[in-house]
Design brief:
With about 400 residues, this protein is an alpha/beta fold. The chain contains 15 helices and 14 strands. It has a seven-stranded mixed β-sheet, sandwiched between helices. It has a three-stranded antiparallel β-sheet with strand order 11-12-14. The chain is globular.
Length: about 400
Amino acid sequence: MKTCLDDLALLGGTPLFTEKLHVGRPNIGSREDLLRRINDILDNRWLTNNGPYVNEFEARLCGLLGVKHCIPTCNGTVALEIAIRAAGLRGEVIVPSMTFVATAHSLQWQEITPVFCDIDPVTCNIDPSRVEEMITPRTTGIVGVHLWGRPCDVDALEEVARARNLRLLFDAAHAFGCSRKGRMVGGFGNAEILSFHATKFLNTFEGGAVATNDDELAARIRLMKNFGFAGYDNVIYIGTNGKMSEVSAAMGLTGLDSMEEFIEVNRRNYELYREGLAGVPGVEVLSYDGGERCNYQYVILRMDEDEAGISRDRLVESLHAENVMARRYFYPGCHRMEPYRSYFPHSGLLLANTERLAGSVVSLPTGTAVGTGEISALCGLVRFVAENGAELSERLDGTGRA
């Protein structure tokens, strides 16, 4: 418990936590069940190439999401690259800049230009009304991002895509297990891309998937993720190696067995943060729609520097010093990363909401590796820093810190 500024580790005090608290530390599930599956894999000597665990994982994903196809891949980025290519995207594709850089890289890697569109300041997702303004004769598609598990305005984006004959994909890396209007994320647009990276609430060590109800698109994706093979010694399409391994699928199945427990822990943590940070000056915990299914994977704070008297970056610096490894999600926006800041040096002029959000949000630790006592202590720390923000800023300025 911090009672005076000199207690802060940033000013020479002892860190609140002896071990680092990370954002997105992996959930494991039942080790016994995982090891049983791994031993079965070793006994069968079937390690990859669409083995029984990959097929079981795919079937369970389809059932959970209510889609015809959910094709597992080695990671989410490869899933996105394959889906982009299979959907026939080229030229220019409209995307938000407020996303992980892989969303843009998956396009640029294939010499497709990502055209960055601003976000809605309330939903924090791509703004459909602004999408219309970005369309040119070279535009072939839109990639929406369900940021922090809060789904895009799917209806509006689908209407734009239909009217302008564009393909519509969704980067759903944050939104596995979430719903919109009672319908699970996974079946919107032409396809949705999932991530099962180790930092996601359900992981396959490393992995991803493409979900779609389009039979033809699914057939192309299956070919492309396995070198274009359509049966033994029969290559009929250009492809790459995007297959998920058996051991990754075993981890995914183990996680699915405990998925509801993971979500319940995340929800508990989210509600503890909401309660513990209520009324803190300049600090807002972003909310989720309680009427929808949600994975509660992210606890996001939005900082108002004028009200708190301290900047988001100063708060993050203070938390890091206390061994709380909070993250700026996503900073500074793809448009300010290379190569995009060189390609489009003035794009920020069209992305005012994106830049404002990127400069004000923080992601806090959650998941099964974070306990209730740690959350209570962390809330007390954030409250103390925010309530003493102006004085702390003056002290840091006095030490010459930026």
